[in-house]
């Protein structure tokens, strides 16, 4: 759990556009190529939000029914669900006196600012869509990178903050009807940023996130029906994965509906079972990718005490369905040792689906929360490379 002089802390001396990457095989048509070039040419999207305690508190209430109390964030309990009082920031009460927003809860802030009439037919926003025929969107995975010092953490101090989102990479994979488009998104969250034309202030960088979305081709109703009734593949969990803790969770329709509302997400695969079966080829409602991430971070929090996550990488491998019990598992990686940062620890975190196989697989680098910001990144490019 990295020493205060060796763990990576986010500092940006300058802000430059991350290099965009387009990887396409020769078979990709000019229409597809033009669409992808258009995606990469899009200007960065800036979303502002006030870091009030309400979204995080409502998320805690939403998760309270399915998580054991040992996995609740510090300060939350079900005996008193009233919104906690949070004083306005002042010179006397610095930012460190305000509650830290639990790691992962940023996913219910900075919602996409899109009118309902502008959503796509599946309820998703069009901001990263490559267009027809790749209209079936799924969350494939991603990475989170957090600062290690106390002053840069996201806190519920009512600060107006900024999320800068840009498309970093577009890739076509597969052949024929199995062709799919992967879109990689870079998100940079800063505290107190107003002028989006200015470079990031290193002292205000709160986190970096990389999201990987995959867009599948449309399918016919007949194909959807066949897929919905097809037994799912089970990805065997290797024998080396023996959890220190295993938490069974059964997601409900209420959970999915509430999380959809909190994240401003109208995607039909989480809300409409008929749409799932007849349009997407899934047997029932799907658990959100970001909700799976929050559940993994919540169970991990139970294992790391007062430490925090520095970096978290994860991949979604198989669907998770409503009303089917999953198991969130955490195992400390005993083989990991960083001689320069002996306090750092590495954890394997994964979710097993109802059939017992891998559904989500992640790794976390964990260490103490400190004051030092001596070791830093010099640019967005360098920082982004650590998330690849």
UniProtKB/TrEMBL annotation:
<dbReference type="GO" id="GO:0005739">
    <property type="term" value="C:mitochondrion"/>
</dbReference>
<dbReference type="GO" id="GO:0019171">
    <property type="term" value="F:(3R)-hydroxyacyl-[acyl-carrier-protein] dehydratase activity"/>
</dbReference>
<keyword id="KW-0413">Isomerase</keyword>
<dbReference type="InterPro" id="IPR029069">
    <property type="entry name" value="HotDog_dom_sf"/>
</dbReference>
<dbReference type="InterPro" id="IPR052741">
    <property type="entry name" value="Mitochondrial_HTD2"/>
</dbReference>
<protein>
    <submittedName>
        <fullName>Thioesterase/thiol ester dehydrase-isomerase</fullName>
    </submittedName>
</protein>
<dbReference type="GO" id="GO:0016853">
    <property type="term" value="F:isomerase activity"/>
</dbReference>
